[in-house]
Write a structure and sequence with these properties.
single chain, 353 residues, Elongation Factor Tu (Ef-tu), domain 3, 2 domains, eight-stranded mixed beta sheet, eight-stranded parallel beta sheet, 25% strand
Length: 353
């Protein structure tokens, strides 16, 4: 088969989704599957839906369009504020979008009127992670302003934590979001249908809390795709971590000195290579580069050590493995490596259903 390639096990994705959906149902929390790490690959999205996700979300209009072309008919949420130049496309392809800026809301309102449709808005609240969000004291006024804009309807409130600054979504943060929901409903006189507590980093809290308050949705990507939680990158009990494997072909296999020689300066990506042991090693080069994956996020097979990666070459110490040119080596991936591999035009996909 062609390499490099991303081998995808859809049953593992569906199984992870089903497990998380079933665990969150008792708390009254539904799952929106997030497909951005795989660039909106329809087969992966369908596996999430098969596993019980109530809808899908992605941060890019282009990925949502790919999902629609792939036949996904269930609700789609644009989980990043639409760019002003994309509001018409956002209206056509997504049912809901996450927003913070009045000027964007104005543009969405105008686009909805042009399209003859109504677009649902979730206002994002800043709770400390310092990515997107409206200040808590401004949320009620922002909610009222959505209701005044023709073509828009206020679906709910949401927040995002642990992405930019690593702020943990805990009981105090979620209680604050719930209080804001109550305040908005009291003033606007309507019940919000979406209270989006956050992403996979919320799972520790959601599965342990005795009171999730008004939170009724989580946007889950990494936990479904990789079976890990983002706060400490620990495997989640009962989830599979083998849904994705990055496969590369060996293009050189030689015994070489373990240490480079000559005057040492920065390598191609600005780092200085670490000191290695003395003697010789059995070294292989795999046709994978930083254009294809994040080297820090690759997990090599047991007994093989990653020595470095340039744009197009992955250098490994194969140890006692008998490796020849033309052989394939398979690597596990973390979220960063998966995202880059799924985005690289040089990496093909092979899907196991």
């Amino acid at each position: 088969m062609t390499a490099p390639r991303l081998d995808i096990d859809l049953d593992a994705i569906a199984s992870n989704t089903r497990t998380l959906v079933d665990r969150l149902v008792p708390a009254g929390i539904r799952v929106t599957g997030v497909s951005k790490a795989v660039r909106g690959l329809p087969a992966v999205a369908e596996a999430m839906l098969r596993g019980g996700a109530s809808g899908l979300g992605d941060s890019r209009v282009e990925n949502l369009e790919r999902l629609r072309r792939g036949g996904v008919a269930l609700p789609l949420t644009l989980i990043r504020s639409p760019m002003l130049g994309q509001v018409d496309r956002a209206i056509r392809v997504s049912d809901t979008s996450l927003n913070t800026e009045p000027v964007v809301l104005d543009a969405l309102s105008a686009a909805s009127l042009r399209n003859g449709s109504t677009h649902a808005v979730v206002l994002m609240v800043e709770l400390g992670d310092l990515r997107e969000g409206i200040a808590a004291e401004d949320v009620v006024a922002a909610a009222q302003s959505v209701e005044r804009r023709p073509g828009l309807t206020l679906a709910g409130l949401g927040t995002n934590l642990a992405c930019h600054s690593g702020v943990v979504p805990d009981q105090r943060k979620m209680d604050e979001l719930s209080r804001l929901v109550d305040a908005v409903e009291a003033v606007c006189g309507a019940t919000l249908s979406v209270v989006s507590g956050g992403n996979s980093a919320n799972l520790d809290w959601a599965l342990a809390s005795d009171d999730v308050g008004r939170i009724d949705e989580l946007r889950l990507g990494e936990s479904i795709l990789l079976g890990t939680e983002p706060l400490n990158r620990r495997p989640i009990d009962g989830l599979r971590s083998d849904a994705f494997t990055l496969v590369g072909e060996v293009i050189e296999a030689k015994t070489k000195p373990a240490q480079p020689w000559g005057e040492i300066a920065q390598a191609s990506f600005g780092h200085r290579p670490p000191r290695r042991r003395s003697g010789t090693i059995r070294q292989a080069i795999v046709a994978l580069g930083r254009q294809d994956a994040d080297p820090d996020g690759l997990v090599p097979p047991p007994g093989i050590t990653i020595l470095g990666m340039s744009s197009d070459h992955l250098i490994v110490d194969v140890g006692d493995h008998d490796v020849s040119v033309g052989d394939e080596l398979s690597f596990g991936l973390d979220y960063s490596a998966l995202m880059r591999a799924a985005t690289s035009p040089f990496v093909t996909t092979s899907i196991r259903r």
